[in-house]
Amino acid sequence: MLAYQHAYHAGNFADVHKHLTLFAVTHYLLRKKSPVTYFDTHAGRGRYPLDAEETRKLEEYRQGVAPLWEERKALGQSDPLLGEWLDRLVQAQREARPEGKSQLTVYPGSPWWLTQALRPQDQLSLFELHPKEHDHLSGQALPTNARRIHGDGLEGLKKRLPVATPRLCVLIDPSYERKEEYAEVAATLSEIGRKARHAIVMIWYPLLPAGRHHVLLDEVKRAGLRKLWRSEFILRDPGAASHGMYGSGMLVMNPPWGLDEMLNQTMSLIRARLAPQGRHESGWWVGE
Ligand code: SAM
User: Fold this and answer.
1) What's a BP term from Gene Ontology annotated to this protein (predicted)?
2) Residue 241 pLDDT
C-alpha cells in the first residue's frame, strides 16, 4: 500500500514542526568539523510547488507555513532560529524562481533542508519507495554527496549500520499508512541504538485520536533505549467525536545539548501564531 503522497499536506503545521526540529539539530551538528552521515529514510519529493494539483486540494500550508511567511520580518527579529529558518525559505523561493518576486510558491521537503547542512565531508542517503515520488526526487539537482535510493528506508538504513563517519544523524518520517509501522520504527530505533549508540535520530509521528503513536513510544521505552526527548505540537484536544490529526510529535534520540531550550522558545512563538488554543509540550520521554 503506497497511496500516501506528501504533496497533499506540504507545508502544513506538522511540516513546520518537523523541519524546524531538523534545522535546529543540523545547526548544532554544524558547530563541529567532523563528518556526519545523514539518512532520510522517507524522503518524499524533495520540493513541493504550492500550485500543484494535489497541494491545491487541501491547501494545508495556509494553516502552516503561510502565516509565518507573511510575518517573517517580525518573527525573525523575535527569534534567531525562526529567523534563520525563514531566511532559508526565502532562498528556496529564489532557487525555484530566480527572477520572481519574494513570494511563497514552493515548500522544501526534508531532502532540501538536509542538503542545506551538507558539507563536502558529509554524506546523505535519501530513501524513497514510491516510484513516482522517487522520480520527482531524481529530477532535482542535489550535491554529489547526496544519494537517492529507490527502496525501503528502514531496511536500507539498517543494512548500512554502523557508518564510517564519527557522527550519524537520521530522520525517520513515515506515512504510517500501515499500523505496523509504529512498531517497525521502534524496532529500527533499537537497532540503531545497538549499532550506533551516539546517533542523533529524529522520528516524526502523528497525533491521531486512535493514539497509535503510544505503540512507538511504549516500545522504545520497553527496549531500554535512553536519552529520548520528545516535542509535541498539539492543535486541539482530541475530543471523542474528532477525527484527523490533532497534533504532531517528534521523538529525538540523543538530542544535542541546548536543543530543548532553543526549540521550546521557537515553538512557543509558532504555537501562538498557528494554534492560539493549542499547546507545545516537551521533555524527556526517557532520560539519561
Ligand atoms: N520526509 C518528507 C519531508 O519531510 O519532506 C516527507 C515524507 S512523507 C511523510 C513519507 C514518504 O515515505 C512518502 O513519500 C512515501 O512514498 C514514502 N514511503 C512509504 N513507505 C516507505 C518505505 N518503506 N521506505 C521509504 N519510503 C517510503
Assistant:
1) rRNA base methylation
2) 59
